[in-house]
Every structure is written in C-alpha cells, then in structure tokens.
Automatic annotation (TrEMBL):
Keywords, alphabetical: Membrane, Transmembrane, Transmembrane helix
Organism taxonomic ancestry: Eukaryota, Metazoa, Spiralia, Lophotrochozoa, Annelida
Membrane recorded as keyword: yes
Originating organism: Capitella teleta (Polychaete worm)
Protein name: Amino acid permease/ SLC12A domain-containing protein
Compartments in which it is found: Membrane
C-alpha cells in the first residue's frame, strides 16, 4: 500500500468513527450533519451548472456533436455501465428504512419520493451537461474526480474549493447511509433475523446505538479493496437482485391478495417495468462479468449462516443461549442500551 493510500485509509477510518459516534449519540445531530452537507453538495452542483450554462453561451458544445463516438455497444458492457451510472442515484430507497421516524408516512413518503427523485435527476443531468462543456468523454473516464478536473480548468486559483465540496458531499453520503442502514439492522434484529442486541436502544438518547456501531464497523471491511469500481459492481449486483425480488414480491401479492388494504399504492406498469429492468441488470452481468457477480453472490452467501443461526435454528443449546446472554449483558452495560418497549402495551 502506498503512502497516499495509507493516508486516505486513515482519513476514511476517522470519518467513519466520527459519523458513527454522531449517529449513536443523537438523532438530531445526525440529521443536522446531513442537512449541512446536503446543502454544501447542492451549492457545489449549482455552481457547476451555472458555469456550464456560461460555457454553453460561449459556444463550448463540441463534445455534444458526437456523444456516442467509440461507444461499446456490447450488452454486457451496457449493463455494467448502468451499474456505474445508477450508483450515483443510490439512496432513493433508503427512506423506507426510516419510515418509523417519518411523520404521516402514508402522505409524506410518496411526496418525498417524487420530489427527491425529480430534483436529483434534474440536478445530476444538468451537472453532466455542464461537465461535457469542458471535459471530453475520454477525459471524464480517465478522471478520478470529474468535478475537480472541471474546476482546475475553469476556476483558476480557486479550483481548490471543488475538492472540499467533493469531500463534504462524500461525508454527507456516508452519514446518510449510516443513519438509514442502521435502522435496517435494527428492524431485522427486532424480527429475530440478527442478534437481539442490535434491536436495543440507548436509554438516554433513544438511538439504536448497537446497530449504528455494527454498521460502522462492518463498513470498514470494504477498505480491503482499493478498486472503487469493482466494489460498485459487487454491491450493485446484490442491490438490484434484492430490490428486484422485493418488487417482484409486490407484484405477487397484488395478484394473490388483490383486496389487501394498501395505504400506498402505485400503478402496476411501474413495478413491471422495474422488474424487467432488474432482470436485465442481474442476468446479463452474470455472463459479462462473472467475477464481480460471483463476488456479489459471495456477499449474499455470508447471510446464510446468520439465517440458520438466528432464524432457522430454533432449539439452541443452553450453552449457546447462556453465551449470547452474557454478550448482550456486556454490550448493555457498555453502551447503556435496553430492549425497545413493546408499542402494543
């Protein structure tokens, strides 16, 4: 590992540590951090978009004349390209993980989904148009941070503001993932699919501290790889397989239980299109990129022991239960966490 990679890994570990503490200590702190860094990200994108319009006004549109030149039309490459491109939109489904903390979810969940997806899509498309006024497709592929390359060419001595904005955006993205995905572990534990202690909450702060800390620690495993694009392919395969199956289950229940009460309901055409697209993004990469998809399958397989231990295995030996109780008590004392109160009482 080079010195540069070592320093970057240290910064990543420090960032995860700080954000894990923030999310474990206070929900308000976490949401305020998210608000601040989201605003910083939007400011950077608005600056890029305005600069792009100025460039278009100057006649800088040569990179739009042959946008598909030297394009690889192979179906497998297109599927992997979707993995890379759609990763920028990853997070659209995270609101479902925190639905218990959402006020009036039947009304606000659909509203938040449509508003956020519309804003993000518009801003990202305009941002990429701005990039192409200055950066060629080949240069964009070669750049490790397109926003920084864009700033270096247009902002002169003030180019350094863009790396800061990129860092703030990344910091905010990690905070959002910690905040939402920890709730997924929390809910899974509450249903008996993961260790019981992950469903405990901090007695003073009322935060799912064990789930947040578990999420922060497991995220550091990905530091074992330095290839960001390979990681995206690993995770994207798992993500599209899981979400595709979930949407497929929605279609199944719409067919088998048509009279079930559904406070939130969409037209069938959308889940059908989504399922078809998910099948494409799961099946094609199996042939085009077997190693990455194989790694994705291994990631899924890591959940098999967890399933058999905590769900399938009902008659656990007394020694195992005694050990788990000791672990739970130790974590309870260390973090001051307790089981969540039963809302039906």
């Amino acid at each position: 590992m080079s010195r540069k990679q070592y320093i970057s890994h240290e910064l990543i570990v420090m960032s995860f540590g700080v954000l894990t503490v923030v999310n474990a200590v206070d929900v308000k702190w976490a949401t305020r951090v998210q608000d601040v860094f989201t605003v910083a990200k939007l400011l950077a994108l608005v600056l890029i978009i305005i600069t792009g319009f100025v460039q278009l006004g100057r006649g800088k549109y040569e990179h739009f004349l042959s946008p598909f030149e030297n394009t690889n039309a192979d179906v497998g490459s297109i599927a992997l390209a979707f993995y890379q491109g759609l990763f920028a939109y990853n997070g659209w489904n995270y609101l479902n993980y925190v639905i218990e903390e959402l006020q009036d979810p039947y009304k606000n969940l659909p509203r938040a989904s449509w508003i956020s997806i519309s804003i993000v899509t518009s801003v990202y498309v305009l941002t990429n148009i701005a990039y192409f006024t200055t950066v060629s497709p080949a240069e964009m592929l070669a750049s490790s941070a397109v926003a920084v390359t864009f700033a270096e060419r247009l902002y002169g001595m003030f180019w350094w503001i863009m790396p800061i904005f990129v860092a703030l955006s990344t910091f905010g993205g990690v905070n959002g993932i910690l905040f939402t995905t920890a709730r997924l572990f929390f809910a899974g534990s509450r249903e008996g699919h993961m260790p019981e202690v992950l469903s405990y909450v901090q007695v003073h702060r009322m935060t799912p501290a064990p789930a947040v800390i578990f999420m922060g620690m497991t995220s550091l495993i990905y530091l074992c790889s330095t290839d960001m694009y390979a990681l995206i392919n690993y995770v994207a395969f798992v993500n599209w397989l899981a979400v595709g199956l979930a949407v497929g289950a929605l279609l199944y229940f719409r067919y088998t239980r048509p009279d079930m009460k559904r406070p939130i309901k969409v037209g069938l055409v959308w889940p059908i299109i989504y399922c078809a697209f998910s099948v494409f993004l799961v099946i094609v990469p199996l042939y085009a990129s077997p190693f990455e998809t194989g790694m994705g399958c291994l990631i899924i397989a890591t959940g098999i022991p967890i399933y058999f231990i905590f769900v399938k295995w009902q008659k656990k030996p007394v020694a195992f239960l005694r050990f788990m109780n000791k672990v739970n008590r130790g974590i309870q004392k260390a973090l001051l966490v307790v089981p969540e109160e039963n809302k039906t009482q």
